[in-house]
TrEMBL record:
Reactions catalysed: 4-(phosphooxy)-L-threonine + NAD(+) = 3-amino-2-oxopropyl phosphate + CO2 + NADH
PANTHER family in alphabetical order: 4-HYDROXYTHREONINE-4-PHOSPHATE DEHYDROGENASE
Organism, as annotated: Billgrantia campisalis
Subunit organization: Homodimer.
The UniProt record lists the keyword Cytoplasm: yes
Main location: cytoplasm
Subcellular location: Cytoplasm
Protein name (database record): 4-hydroxythreonine-4-phosphate dehydrogenase
Length: 355
């Protein structure tokens, strides 16, 4: 799977078939020579149909996981086939294909775990249609991959391209940002109850360990947001900072983690406060991700920390409104592929997962 001359084999799941995932994978393969060997996981007929729809001339050789994957060439996209459950039209969701989407993830995870791929990249899926199909409790790739790997905790982190590379110091300005989340896909009314010290501590240990492991940040400095406005205003605007977050951070500082916070989120996300910080931990999805997307939408990637192999993804969703049009920007997928390739080269840092 690892081949110094041709780069690592990476499973690239093509996501919701009615969304932009299939066409972004095709457009990337049509134009960009890759440092890795991405293999699309999806329906070959669907990919051929979308390629024709977009006027792309591509060869889509079908392989089985474990078969040799040739060096990447512009215009060639090898495919590990998974069959659609019913034909798919751009922009039109079908619950029948929810199992297809999940099967692509299972194939990619199986390939990573068997050593046929060094990591995986995921094009966007549609959480709503998977739930509508009856997969109760499905909240996204992040938790699905956690469960598929039989581990207790993972962490979602998004990073702009300027903050991806360890060799390049972080926070040089110009939109370099890494934002991890203490909670992911929860209704806002449930967020405060989910901020509990044991889970927060596990999240911060994973973030600290994986910044070292995958990003070669030797001594990560992490800024932690408060939950409430003004980080609770001394308890007058909420007590989570005083009762949960601050004591948890104190305990982790005793373990050697370099943590700043809890800080008011509005001023934390300013250049002066971000100087010297390697990652921000936001308490919830829409506290951290709008800032990240403002800084770098289209050139950022989503990374699942805590998995036994690299998994990266795009910074956007299925964009059903653009599917089939050829107008969706493949920039984030390109960043996700490049990052996954780079992460696989950091295997020697795997031991550095605990503080
Ligand atoms: N990694 C993943 O699997 C992700 C999946 N989603 C899922 O996607 C579905 C749709 O979510 P939305 O909130 O509507 O977000 P979305 O990202 O699909 O769309 C929001 C807006 O951004 C635009 N946009 C998205 N990707 C673009 C691209 N590559 N180039 C240009 N414009 C682009 C869309 O046209 C739309 O106007 C939901 O089911 C959500 O859960 C959302 C984020 C990540
Ligand atoms: N907003 C980020 C997002 O929805 C990504 O979720 P996941 O499918 O990567 O877990």
């Amino acid at each position: 799977m690892a081949d110094a001359a041709h780069g690592p084999v990476l499973a690239l799941t093509t996501g919701e078939p009615a969304g932009v995932g299939p066409e972004l994978a095709l457009r990337l393969a049509a134009t960009a020579p890759s440092a890795a060997r991405p293999v699309a996981v999806g329906d070959p007929a669907l990919l051929a149909e979308r390629a024709a729809m977009l006027g792309l001339s591509l060869s889509l050789p079908e392989l089985a996981p474990g078969e040799p994957v040739p060096a990447a060439r512009a215009g060639v996209l090898p495919v590990w086939p998974v069959a659609l459950r019913e034909p798919s039209r751009p922009g039109v969701l079908a619950t029948a294909n929810a199992d297809y989407v999940l099967e692509t993830l299972d194939v990619a995870v199986g390939a990573c775990r068997a050593g046929h791929a060094a990591g995986m990249i995921t094009a966007p899926l549609h959480k709503g249609v998977i739930l509508d199909a009856g997969h109760v409790g499905f909240t996204g790739h992040t938790e699905y991959l956690r469960d598929a790997c039989g581990i207790d905790e993972v962490v979602m982190m998004l990073a702009t391209d300027r903050a991806l590379h360890a060799a390049e110091p972080t926070w040089r300005g110009g939109g370099a940002l890494r934002v991890a989340l203490a909670t992911t896909h929860l209704p806002l009314r449930d967020v405060a109850d989910a901020i509990r010290a044991p889970r927060l501590a596990r999240t911060l240990r994973i973030l600290h360990g994986d910044l070292r492991r995958w990003f070669a940040v030797e001594r990560p400095r992490i800024a932690v947001c408060g939950l409430n406005p003004h980080a609770g205003e001394g308890g007058h605007l909420g007590r989570e900072e005083l009762e949960v977050i601050a004591p948890c951070l104190d305990a982790l500082r005793g373990e050697g983690l370099d943590l700043d916070g809890p800080l008011p989120a509005d001023t934390l996300f300013t250049p002066r406060h971000l100087a010297g910080v390697d990652a921000v931990l936001a308490m919830y999805h829409d506290q951290g991700l709008p800032v990240l997307k403002y800084a770098g939408f289209g050139r950022a990637a989503n990374i699942t920390l805590g998995l036994p192999f690299p998994r990266t993804s795009v910074d956007h969703g299925t964009a059903l409104d653009l599917a089939g049009s050829g107008r969706a920007d493949p920039g984030s997928l390109a960043v996700a592929v490049a990052l996954a390739a780079e992460m696989t080269s950091r295997g020697d840092l795997k031991a550095m997962t605990t503080p």
